[in-house]
């Protein structure tokens, strides 16, 4: 099948794609430069080994991606060098069940930790502001 200029080939027609480009196309990072930075700082591994941004990704590769507090353990199912809708991007990989469960548990733990903090409903009045200021002055001396 011939492709017109400007048209992208179907995902299965690509033999390999650069790692930074694939991470961007699969929507793990907002920009390609953020994907490249994550790879260079060791937050992305292919088959348990650190990789370079230019390393080729093939279907069937196992990736470990650290993004913020989340760790994704995925298998590459498809290749793409263009960023598309989220539904298409999610079809490019499959996350392991253990990885999903671990991420959900960590998210629930963080949510429970935040639940203890109750912000005040109103601004402090004149008396409370003076107390706050006085407490701040204790540390200065």
Written account of the structure:
There is one protein chain. The protein has 141 residues and is an alpha+beta fold. It has 5 helices and 7 strands. It has helices at residues 19-25, 32-40, 86-90, 97-115, 126-140, and strands at residues 17-18, 44-46, 49-50, 56-57, 62-67, 70-76, 93-95. It has a 5-stranded antiparallel sheet. It is elongated, with a radius of gyration of 23 Å.
How is this structure best summarized?
With 141 residues, the protein is of the alpha+beta class.
Can you give keywords for this protein?
141 residues; alpha+beta; Structural Genomics Hypothetical 15.5 Kd Protein In mrcA-pckA Intergenic Region, Chain A; five-stranded antiparallel beta sheet; two-stranded antiparallel ribbon
- Proportion in helices: 25-40%
Terminal Cα span? 78 Å
Radius of gyration: 23 Å
CATH class: Alpha Beta
Main beta-sheet annotation: 5 strands, antiparallel
CATH architecture field: Roll
- Report the sheet-strand fraction: 15-25%
Overall average pLDDT: 85
User: What are the segments in which pLDDT stays under 50 over at least 5 consecutive residues?
Assistant: none
Outline the fold blueprint.
Layout: E1 17-18, H1 19-25, H2 32-40, E2 44-46, E3 49-50, E4 56-57, E5 62-67, E6 70-76, H3 86-90, E7 93-95, H4 97-115, H5 126-140
Antiparallel strand pairs: 1-4, 2-3, 2-5, 5-6, 6-7
Helix pairs in contact: 1-2
